[in-house]
Write a structure and sequence with these properties.
Beta-galactosidase, Chain A, domain 5, 8-stranded parallel barrel, 13 helices, 38 strands, binds alpha-D-galactopyranose
């Protein structure tokens, strides 16, 4: 049993394969956090370690009286601490009662278990059936205010994750305003930690930062409407000596695509707290009597196998229990996206000529990006008018899709459903549907506004428009874009005192639209996008099993972006394309082989005018696609190991078959020096006693200048033990940004 509750002692233990989460409802009724870490025996009760010491100026609950001065919520680890009643650290719950007071205190009122993983209405959540998961629902009550909180815990034993969420119910007879409602609070009574967070900007998303926690509160988050380019809703706490392969790590992945806040606090007695919530700066939710509020979910995981071990737990959780639909388990088509090939400058004939070459080269899907609809000649207008520009295309959308299909390619299309241009028919008809504050000029970004997705009529309109297009032409892929942050937040659908609900209601509206469309068109592959990777989160992955990782297609910058992304998200979620050289974002020229190598470590595709490739380049592209087909399952389903970080002069990563039968090592030199220091790596995930053949993989590069293959220790035949314990020396670089792909397979 993965959930064990001992009613007599109040101890609750949640066990996964390699971790235990323990809490205790004590004699005063507080739900204290006891342990989250390595797996304990069923009989272990760690609550004796909670340190009760009289600490100056740390208050005591009323009923402690004289005898219990040492019992203070200000220093005790708790499952869901409330603001205003004696715990002065970061709180999980801030409420404002009808009388204006802001204090709450929760006491244990019982718990129950359910088979299977709980689901959340209207919100994405990790799923698991009765054989895979058990759920625990703990009810807490505030004796003074009749506020009730249900803490939800989903335990996936084999997957090694614990999910958390909270439902807050107003059982009183007056309204209550939630000013902050965290999805979880996690306390560590002991230990020193580094905090890994993932920051970025447009076209440079998810750079990993690792810093020791300092006293006080440190946080990442955003109030931009979407989870953002600037901070990813994922973070890791780890032991300062944790490495890729060893050491204790705890990860928290917020399954949410809107505004969020993750706060880490090191308190006065060196205890650590991590709290994750919808961003409270932009949140105030009124609960009328009897109403409830459901927080989004967070996925927690613990690993004592280092950062790599932790990442692989999240990869599996996201790949198998967040991503859904027929595309979850299918190899994704090798696509050609026309954006960097044509931008807005195309006709139907031009697209068909590019598609024809793409088909000849072995690609499977042609995606028509921005510019096909309304009067969208540049990025200043047209958004919201989702009807094809037949004059520009020279035919109907159905006819164009038919012409592409006739080449043997599937047809995909770009939308930005949440956006509206002032210069559009939709805006002229429904100016009130755009998000803006009445009487104030709105902030423009890319000259566009955002539709008020918190409104049901707007949601219904977009569902209708997109359904019409998807039903009217053979479309097998949709790129769902969103190209600005949201400000000037206001909705005509809520009264003044409830405007603080807008940001979350927007996300709920977005999820409803995505749910309806993905359910109605299950065969369509949806790819998320937000100016590249501005909404790369587990919430979106519940609807779109892949997301365009970044608008930056430079393979050298992509190494950093994909490296940072890989701490939480598996390669099969990262849209990644080969683009032209020199690169459009950085001006850098890199070998086609390196562009191919980096793009293959994701959802592989091309984004350039393939009609301009030389015959040698065309041959290389054919070879790349054949190579990708050969390794696609290994990349999609294999265990991902980060062997060397890009900043180390040569980025190296590996996909190993879960059964150890083969592995693909991919390496890109980011720096080339004369007389180079050899790059040595240890290959992971193989069977120690088996023998493997190690040989270069991938097509022979088109040879744009310098010789690619010089001295090489490959091929070789070695045991799994030798490859892991001693390893491989990579062939040295012969030119800048050279890449290597090495295939390792069992000897027959
Ligand atoms: C965003 C996307 C790009 C492209 C453009 C089109 O920037 O991230 O991939 O689709 O919009 O306008």
């Amino acid at each position: 049993m993965s959930i064990v509750y001992d009613k007599a002692s109040g101890l609750i233990s949640l066990h996964t394969r390699r971790s235990t989460y323990q809490m205790k409802a004590d004699e005063l009724g507080f739900l204290l956090h006891v342990h989250y870490g390595g797996r304990l025996a069923d009989a272990d009760d760690l609550s004796g370690q909670l340190c009760l010491v009289d600490r100056g100026l740390c208050g005591n609950p009323y009923e402690c009286g004289r005898d219990r001065r040492e019992y203070s919520l200000d220093v005790l680890p708790q499952e869901y601490p409330c603001f205003g009643t004696g715990d002065f650290r970061t709180a999980a719950l801030h409420v404002r009662s009808a009388d204006g007071s802001r204090a709450a205190q929760l006491r244990f009122a019982g718990c129950r278990t359910e088979k299977g993983k709980y689901a959340l209405e209207g919100l994405p959540a990790l799923y698991g059936d009765e054989a895979e998961a058990e759920s625990l629902i703990v009810t807490l009550r505030d004796p003074a205010s009749a506020l009730e909180v249900e803490l939800q815990y989903g335990v996936l034993e084999d997957l090694d994750v614990i999910c958390r969420s909270a439902r807050i119910v107003n059982r009183g007879d007056g309204p209550v305003v939630l000013e902050k409602a965290a999805s979880f609070c996690l306390d560590w009574p002991f230990g020193k930690f580094d905090w890994l967070t993932f920051h970025g900007r447009h076209a440079m998303e998810r750079n990993m930062t690792r810093q020791g926690l300092r006293h006080g509160v440190q946080s990442v988050g955003c109030a931009r409407g979407a989870s953002s380019h600037q901070y990813n809703p994922f973070s890791i706490l780890c032991a300062p000596d944790a490495t890729e392969t060893a050491g204790e790590c705890w990860g928290a992945c917020f399954v949410y695509s809107g505004e969020f806040l993750m706060e880490a606090e090191l308190d006065q007695v060196d205890q650590t707290r991590l709290v994750c919530s919808i961003h409270p700066d932009d949140f105030a939710w009124t609960l009328a009597p009897g109403e409830s509020f459901q927080t989004p979910e967070a996925i927690l995981a613990y690993s004592d196998r280092g950062l790599g071990g932790l990442s692989r737990v999240f990869h599996r959780a996201i790949r198998e229990h967040i991503c859904r639909g027929p595309w979850r388990d299918r190899r994704r088509p090798v696509l050609l996206n026309d954006w960097e090939a044509t931008y807005f400058d195309f006709t139907g004939d031009k697209l068909v000529s590019i598609a024809q070459k793409a088909a000849e080269l072995g690609m499977e899907l042609f995606v028509m990006d921005d510019g096909w609809f309304g009067r969208r000649e540049d990025d200043n207008g047209g958004l919201g008018d989702w009807y094809p520009n037949e004059e520009k295309l020279g035919c109907t959308l159905r006819e164009l899709a038919g012409r592409i299909n006739a080449l043997g390619l599937d047809f995909g299309i770009w939308f930005e459903p949440e956006a509206v241009s002032e210069d559009s028919g939709l805006y002229k008809t429904h100016p009130d549907w755009a998000v803006r504050v009445p009487g104030r000029d709105p902030c423009l970004a890319r000259n566009q506004l955002v539709l008020d997705f918190s409104r049901r009529d707007v949601q219904d309109h977009i569902i209708g428009e997109l359904s019409g297009i998807l039903a009217g032409a053979p479309i097998s892929y949709v790129k769902w874009d969103m190209n600005r942050s949201i400000c000037d937040k206001f909705t005509a659908s809520l009264p003044p005192e409830r405007q603080g609900e807008f940001a979350h209601r927007y996300v709920l509206g977005l999820y409803r639209v995505l749910e309806e469309l993905t359910a109605a068109f299950p065969q369509v592959l949806f790819e998320g996008c937000s100016g590249g990777g501005g909404r790369f989160d587990a919430g979106m992955l519940y609807y779109t099993p892949q997301i365009w990782c970044s608008d930056n297609t430079d393979p050298i910058n992509r190494l950093d972006i994909q490296y940072g992304t890989s701490f939480c998200y598996p390669a099969c979620t990262m849209g990644s394309h080969v683009s032209a050289a020199p690169n459009h974002q950085t001006g850098r020229t890199t070998p086609l082989s390196t562009r191919g190598c980096v793009a293959m470590a994701g959802c592989f595709g091309y984004e350039l005018d393939v009609t301009r490739l030389s015959p040698a380049e065309q041959a290389e592209v054919r070879g790349q696609i054949a190579c990708f087909r050969q390794y696609a399952d290994l990349i999609r389903l294999g265990d991902h190991y980060r062997l060397r970080a890009p900043e180390e002069g040569c980025a190296v990563w590996e996909f190993a078959a879960p059964d150890g039968s083969e592995a693909l090592v991919q390496a890109v030199y980011t720096r080339v020096e004369a007389n180079p220091v050899p790059v040595h790596i240890r290959v992971r995930g193989l069977r120690p006693d088996s023998r493997y053949r190690v040989e270069p993989a991938g097509p022979v590069p088109a040879g744009d200048g310098a010789p690619d293959r010089g001295w090489s220790p490959l091929p070789a035949v070695l045991s799994g033990a030798a490859l892991e314990r001693s390893g491989l020396t990579l062939p040295p670089p012969r030119r800048e940004h050279q890449s290597w792909q090495i295939h390792i397979r069992l000897c027959p």
